[in-house]
Amino acid sequence: MLLIVYDIADNHRRSQLSNFLEGHGRRVQESVFECFVTLEQMPGLFDRAKKLVVEAEDNLRFYWIPSDAVSRVRSIGSPPPEPPPNYYII
After folding, report:
1. 77 versus 14: which is more confidently predicted?
2. In the sheet that 59-64 helps form, which strands lie side by side, from edge to edge?
């Protein structure tokens, strides 16, 4: 699991980043997303997100949480992290 947290100064950039991240994970707080991606996918996601921020003004962090640690996450006020299903029936 990838935990993404950010503090973006500009409303437009913040909206762009949050819209981008909504396509890759679940928002758990205003500026926090849980994304179930592989470790190999993380650099590509980081590179695309990095283009949406201004380094001198914004703060964007990616925290890799190993799969064996996800089951130990405790949560109050929202469901604990849960990976998406392996398949969908349409």
Report:
1. 14
2. 26-29, 32-35, 2-7, 59-64
